[in-house]
């Protein structure tokens, strides 16, 4: 296929956040190196193989990843498929790039052979990830391009397997990392191959009714702009959010395939400079259109567990229909699209509404509003690019007993995606805990000695009772006393098995004395 266009290095550099000369040099060099290494190889489609790593590099640049990650994305198949020696790669690109490529390579060598192998590969995936989350993000982008080119894969059962794996494993991981753009793209690329009949049915339904919601959106958008301007809100931009077809299918399943019950095939996003503007706009919107009861969700005050922040409301549009609106700031918008990837690089972004956002600690302040209040200008927390939340590390542990694969997969599907809260030590280390976790769980998660000597806790600078639930962004300080001892009551209060285990051990030890 000679009409296929390989992503050019200039395009990748253009999408890259950093314009630093060394970063540019690294990416250019990786591009040329990979192109040369893959020059004799072809994809299933007959296209030059290099098309694939070039796309992966481009996706990573678009997601705002750093130069080392983009370079590793360009080189990710050169060890495995082009026989490049790790030593050469290290000489040419340094240890960091080599480690990333080896991480991705390790994941790639695992082949699916039924559930047993599948879960093993998942475990290894997380084990590799636990060292550096950038490996997982490269893998997601690798899978994204492979999912987009599934139609060229000759064996139908292989197509189905890759598509199902993409839906069941990769898209949920992207979701858990807050990478909603990647999630939707993974799902929509895999859906037609994983569930062809359902795909056709959904598409048909959408084709019949899609234009109706488009017209509605256009009209509401016009009215909204006028209403906001009249109320003095002039700085904002709007965009249409089209629901992914897989996500629509999942919703239709829950609504008995009644498209009238799905209000958000199209949604109107309104992006403002500040959080205060979002709340003002909500008032203006509700004064003009009647809101649908029960559809107002304030994810700014109460972010989703993956960090998502926006205000959602659905309003009756007066033509028998309804439309969802999503109000957010520019930084919340970027965060919502790229999730954790937007935190891994220290970057500056000049947004359309003219509000600049600084990297570094700034993401934490947006992600966890209370951080700003309670921590203020203290030193930066120890956080290096690629550092990993604890819940991923937990997943990397070996399953305990043999034949636990099924159970492991269950754990993965439930625990992995169940709700977590992220809280901070006074020094700024992030500790993640299940939802409703208490200061007791926090103390034991940091260290068993800290738990065993705990006499009280401060959350965001205020003394709290030990059974109070922790919330995203809380800064938790454990107060210790040499004479303090765990009690039976603590055991009842604690939510994590780790805390309970330590408390039981301490109680037993006390009894023996
Ligand atoms: Mn690949």
What does this entry look like structurally?
With 513 residues, the protein is α+β, with helices and mostly antiparallel strands. The chain has 4 domains: 4-192, Hypothetical protein af1432; 196-335, Beta Polymerase, domain 2 (2-Layer Sandwich); 350-385, no CATH class; 419-512, Ubiquitin-like (UB roll) (Roll). The protein has 22 helices and 12 strands. The chain has helices at 9-15, 21-37, 51-62, 67-75, 78-82, 86-108, 114-131, 133-148, 156-176, 180-194, 196-230, 245-254, 275-288, 330-338, 362-367, 369-375, 390-395, 405-414, 439-446, 448-452, 488-493, 497-512, and strands spanning 237-242, 266-272, 297-298, 311-316, 322-329, 349-350, 356-357, 420-424, 430-434, 454-459, 462-464, 476-480. The strands form 4 sheets. It has a 5-stranded mixed β-sheet. A 3-stranded antiparallel β-sheet has the order 11-10-12. A hairpin with a 5-residue loop joins strand 4 (311-316) and strand 5 (322-329). Helix 1 (9-15) runs parallel beside helix 3 and helix 11 (196-230) packs across helix 12 (245-254). The longest helix has 35 residues, at 196-230. The chain is globular, with a radius of gyration of 25 Å. The N and C termini lie far apart (79 Å). The structure holds manganese (II) ion (MN). Manganese (II) ion is lined by residues 52, 76-77, 142.
């Amino acid at each position: 296929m000679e009409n296929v266009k390989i992503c050019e290095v200039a395009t990748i550099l253009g999408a890259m956040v950093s314009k630093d000369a060394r970063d540019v040099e690294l990416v250019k060099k990786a591009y040329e190196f990979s192109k040369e290494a893959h020059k004799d190889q072809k994809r299933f489609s007959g296209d030059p193989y290099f098309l694939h790593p070039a796309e992966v590099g481009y996706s990573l640049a678009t997601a705002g990843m750093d130069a080392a990650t983009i370079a590793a994305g360009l080189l990710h198949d050169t060890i495995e498929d082009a026989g490049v020696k790790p030593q050469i790669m290290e000489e040419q690109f340094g240890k960091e790039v080599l480690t990333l490529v080896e991480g991705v390579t390790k994941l790639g060598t695992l082949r699916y052979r039924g559930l047993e192998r599948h879960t093993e590969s998942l475990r290894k995936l997380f084990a590799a990830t636990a060292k550096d989350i950038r490996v997982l993000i490269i893998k997601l982008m690798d899978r994204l391009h492979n999912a987009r080119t599934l139609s060229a894969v000759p064996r139908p059962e292989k197509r189905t397997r890759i598509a199902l794996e993409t839906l069941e494993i990769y898209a949920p991981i992207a979701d858990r990392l807050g990478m909603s753009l990647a999630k939707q793209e993974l799902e929509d690329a895999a859906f037609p191959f994983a569930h062809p009949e359902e795909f056709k049915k959904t598409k048909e339904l959408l084709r019949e009714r899609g234009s109706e919601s488009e017209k509605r959106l256009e009209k509401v958008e016009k009215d909204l702009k006028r209403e906001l301007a009249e109320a003095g809100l002039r700085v904002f931009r709007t965009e249409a959010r089209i629901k992914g077809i897989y996500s629509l299918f999942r919703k239709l399943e829950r609504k008995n395939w009644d498209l009238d019950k799905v209000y958000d095939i199209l949604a109107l996003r309104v992006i403002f400079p500040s959080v205060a503007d979002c709340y003002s706009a909500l008032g203006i919107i509700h004064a003009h259109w009647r809101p649908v009861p029960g559809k107002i969700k304030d994810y700014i005050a109460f972010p989703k567990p993956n960090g998502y922040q926006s205000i959602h409301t659905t309003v009756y549009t007066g033509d028998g229909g309804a439309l969802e609106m999503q109000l957010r700031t520019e930084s919340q918008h970027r965060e919502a699209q790229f999730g954790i990837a937007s935190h891994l690089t220290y970057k500056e972004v000049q947004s359309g509404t003219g509000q600049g956002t600084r990297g570094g600690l700034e993401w934490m302040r947006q992600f966890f509003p209370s951080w700003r209040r309670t921590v203020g200008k203290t030193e930066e927390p120890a956080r290096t690019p690629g550092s990993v939340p604890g819940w991923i590390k937990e997943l990397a542990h070996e399953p305990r007993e043999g034949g636990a694969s099924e159970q492991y997969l269950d754990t993965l599907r439930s625990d992995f995606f169940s709700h977590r809260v992220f809280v901070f030590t006074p020094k700024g280390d992030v500790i993640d805990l299940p939802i409703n976790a208490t200061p007791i769980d926090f103390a034991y998660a940091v260290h068993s000695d800290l738990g065993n000597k705990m006499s009280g806790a401060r959350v965001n600078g205020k003394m709290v009772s030990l059974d109070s639930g922790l919330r995203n962004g809380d800064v938790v300080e454990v107060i210790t006393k040499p004479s303090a001892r765990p009690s039976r009551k603590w055991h009842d209060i604690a939510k994590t098995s780790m805390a309970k285990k330590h408390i039981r051990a301490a109680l037993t030890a006390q009894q023996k004395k």
